[in-house]
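Fold this sequence, please.
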Amino acid sequence: MHDSIQCAVPAGGARARLAAGAVRLPGRSPTVNGAPDGARIGGIRACVFDAYGTLFDVSSAAVRHRGELGEKAPALAALWRDRQLQYTWLRTIQARHVDFSRITRDALAHALQALGLDARLEPLLMQSFDALDAYPEVPDVLQRLRAAGYTTAILSNGTPDMLAALLDHAGLASLFDAVVSVENVGVYKPHPRVYQSMVSELGLRADQICFQSSNAWDAHAASAFGMRVVWCNRSGQPPERLPGEPDACIGTLGELPDLLGVASAR
């Protein structure tokens, strides 16, 4: 039950139920003017999604090869992802950009060596990273949002080729109006230029975009930029102490349509 996922807030912060499993975080007051009946976050014209960890399960590449990785599969998935993100931030700070494919390969090489695993597994795991599993609720959520008239888009650290491969594998390509990569601006999230690139792509104000991410730091950064934000807190993490505050916290993307007042499919 996703109600058990706790989107905790700092001590003293107010919490308000928005929907089953959805919590409004303190400091943000979602407007309802111009919103569908029942919407908790109003004035939205586009729903934009982070890809890795939000639409697609980043651990599935390692889990798929548990036979080769053995009991170290979960540890590899965690360390690979941790270094992948760290390398994006460190390279952005140093102004030494390389694309996300290179970042992902470098992070994997580190993780394999750190865990004493065979480096010859690298090509197999990299291939699997371009064929990650989509979370099960994703197709239905996208279909419902599009049927309700929302523009749908992806804003991701991934390269255009990586994102195209993911969408083709999952059969989701037709469910997005735009797919925007950080390669358009040459820096990684959470740099403000990344979020501006989506505003420019869609031709909307930031506050007309509802951005969804499972990464709290990404959610906070998009909020600080001016987007409306739903943090998809799949693993029940405590909130970060960073600029910006997500408008709502949910356990899976399946709760998003209710926040936007989208009627249930019949």
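The chain has two domains: 2-55+133-259, 59-129. Residues 73-94 form the longest helix (22 residues).
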